[in-house]
Backbone:
């Protein structure tokens, strides 16, 4: 056996926590992240439920910790290409994609992005805002190193001329490193359910029908609108917002029979925040099948949202949404199942509370590892009393790649997986 | 608020002794109604129902809900069943894959066997067997067609149809005992 070390794949909040917990025991940790920055989906959120904690405020210290930890080797913009060996002695090949920026020289001043003439949609902002071809996904990115998106770069070399640190290097090539680790932790997270599959809601064709993460980015102070909520069709402030629950969860018709666990709470949170962010007030209505307020403080949060904030709740799954072609307002048709009344209501904006599905990254890593997955694509646990062990010895998992869960559950599981992985690595 | 402005519809409470707990299993035993127990009453079916826009009394969720509760009498004799246009929108929208339209057809079959079909529909079936048309043709209709330069309505295979109706035993549902045939 070589030196003690652990590989963590995926640097969302779960991967970050797992890496910190392993590293704090004096074990060398490699943290691999596919995107240019650590943070994952939690970095996209404005606030977290049910305490309305600022998401960035509780996450960024951990992100910085991970970058500065002496025992953690952070490999962003990198992907695992090959895994061989067995528990206690895995050999892993990791490919680092070229940023075309020398990470040791870049100071993150942002001069290059100011001069870059290419504007493309920012996928970190769920394609609402724009970024340049040379970019950091968000201001608090860790590591704060710019990346050139070669798919969109026109190679005008303005950034190269302007960079005082002389960090831009168009000749950079991808690097492959080989590491030897005792155990592996998977934290590959989730993707949002693709709501375009539900044709009756018109997501993708109506401008004012948003997914929850898009709305989250509108709410976020670091988002494309700086925290001001507006309609994407005409830039007006929405005064009536509807939230539709169970879009792509509890939906056997679209192959998603499971409950995504977080949507009820994040919709309530977003409804409260919308009232908070919109000057002059707005009316928010949540259309739900059941409100599943099962966690710590959830039920109180749900009650408070009605009593203190005046969020309206209507029990009924929306049948269809139609768009008023003149005003771009949305007409929602629903049966209030508590009164049996079928009614139509006009809203300025509709937010679909999409469910969580296993990420593309989980599927990619599983092409290498060949772990047993369940019918939806989540990794299967060894047995019910080993929830972080996969069926391969020495490979552990945490977070949403195992099953849908909220942030505290994911972080808790990360610590558990870290302990199991450390035991195997030592 | 003046008196009478705020009206709460007061309904008779549903009494459990009037319910038939096996009704849903009876429906689930039929091929068409086999998925009824999967319903969690979200209301997506009613929300998209084109008949629901036109009339307040037809709500697929309510029919399925009442059937699950065991309100046999109300479901089979209520008459709402027969308003369904069988467009299958509800089936397309249902998150639980309940084949609502088929369940409605299964319930219609049950209602028909127990003799709860609206008289207008029986009348149509009778016309079909006797003349080959759902609506009875009249002399004035023929005259009007002639004026418009349309051909005469073709003769239908009424005798064959009557043979089928007799052979399958369907005829006994069409005519009550006091009728001659």
Residues:
């Amino acid at each position: 056996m070589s030196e003690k070390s652990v590989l963590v794949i995926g640097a969302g909040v779960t991967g970050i926590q797992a890496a910190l917990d392993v590293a704090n025991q004096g074990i060398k940790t490699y943290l691999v992240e596919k995107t240019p920055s650590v943070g994952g989906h939690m970095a996209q959120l404005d606030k977290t439920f049910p305490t309305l904690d600022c998401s960035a405020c509780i996450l960024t210290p951990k992100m910085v910790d991970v970058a500065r930890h002496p025992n953690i080797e952070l490999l962003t913009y990198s992907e695992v290409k090959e895994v061989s060996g067995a528990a206690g002695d895995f050999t892993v090949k990791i490919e680092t994609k070229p940023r075309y920026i020398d990470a040791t020289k870049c100071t993150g001043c942002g001069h290059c992005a100011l001069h870059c003439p290419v504007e493309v949609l920012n996928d970190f902002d769920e394609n609402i805002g724009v970024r340049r071809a040379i970019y950091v996904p968000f201001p608090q990115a860790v590591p704060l190193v710019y990346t050139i998106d070669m798919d969109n770069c026109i190679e005008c070399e303005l950034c190269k001329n302007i960079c005082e640190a002389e960090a831009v290097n168009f000749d950079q090539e991808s690097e492959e490193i080989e590491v030897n680790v005792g155990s592996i932790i998977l934290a590959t997270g989730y993707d949002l359910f693709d709501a375009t599959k539900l044709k009756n809601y018109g997501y993708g064709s109506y401008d004012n029908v948003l997914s929850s993460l898009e709305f989250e980015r509108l709410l976020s102070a670091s988002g494309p609108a700086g925290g001001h909520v507006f309609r994407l069709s005409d830039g007006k402030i929405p005064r009536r917002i509807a939230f539709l629950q169970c879009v792509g969860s509890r939906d056997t018709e679209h192959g998603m029979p499971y409950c995504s666990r977080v949507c009820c709470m994040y919709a309530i949170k977003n409804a409260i925040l919308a009232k908070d962010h919109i000057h002059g007030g707005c009316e928010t209505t949540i259309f739900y099948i059941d409100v599943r307020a099962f966690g710590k403080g959830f039920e109180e949060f749900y009650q408070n949202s009605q009593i203190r904030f005046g969020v309206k709740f209507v029990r009924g799954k929306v049948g269809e949404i139609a768009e008023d072609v003149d005003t771009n307002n949305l007409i929602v048709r629903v049966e209030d199942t508590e009164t049996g009344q079928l009614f139509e209501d006009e809203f300025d904006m509709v937010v679909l509370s999409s469910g969580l599905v296993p990420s593309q990254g989980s599927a990619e890593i599983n092409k290498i590892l060949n772990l047993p997955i369940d019918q939806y694509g989540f990794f299967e646990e060894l047995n019910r009393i080993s929830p972080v062990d996969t069926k391969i010895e020495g490979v552990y998992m945490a977070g949403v790649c195992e099953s849908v869960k909220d942030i505290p559950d994911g972080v808790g599981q990360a610590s558990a997986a870290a302990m199991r992985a450390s035991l195997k690595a030592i | 608020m003046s008196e009478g402005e705020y009206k709460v519809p007061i309904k008779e409470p549903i009494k459990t002794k009037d319910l038939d707990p096996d009704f849903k299993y009876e429906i689930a035993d039929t091929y068409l109604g086999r998925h009824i127990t999967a319903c969690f009453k979200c209301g997506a079916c009613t929300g998209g129902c084109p008949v629901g826009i036109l009339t307040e009394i037809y709500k697929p969720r309510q029919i399925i809900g009442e059937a699950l509760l065991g309100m046999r009498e109300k479901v089979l004799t209520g008459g709402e069943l027969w308003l369904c246009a069988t467009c299958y929108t509800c089936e397309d929208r249902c998150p639980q894959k309940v084949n609502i339209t088929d369940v409605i057809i299964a319930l219609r079959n049950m209602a028909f066997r127990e003799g709860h079909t609206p008289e207008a529909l029986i009348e149509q079936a009778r016309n079909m067997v006797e003349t080959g048309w759902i609506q009875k043709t009249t002399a004035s209709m023929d005259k009007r067609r002639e004026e418009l330069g349309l051909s005469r309505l073709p003769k239908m295979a009424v005798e064959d149809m009557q043979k089928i109706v007799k052979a399958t035993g369907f005829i006994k549902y069409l005519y009550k005992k006091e009728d001659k045939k």
User: Anything to note?
Assistant: The mean pLDDT of chain A is 94. Chain A has two domains: 5-97+174-189+359-425, 193-356. The interface with chain B takes residues 200, 246, 250-254, 289-290, 315-320, 333-337, 340, 342 of chain A (CB under 8 Å).
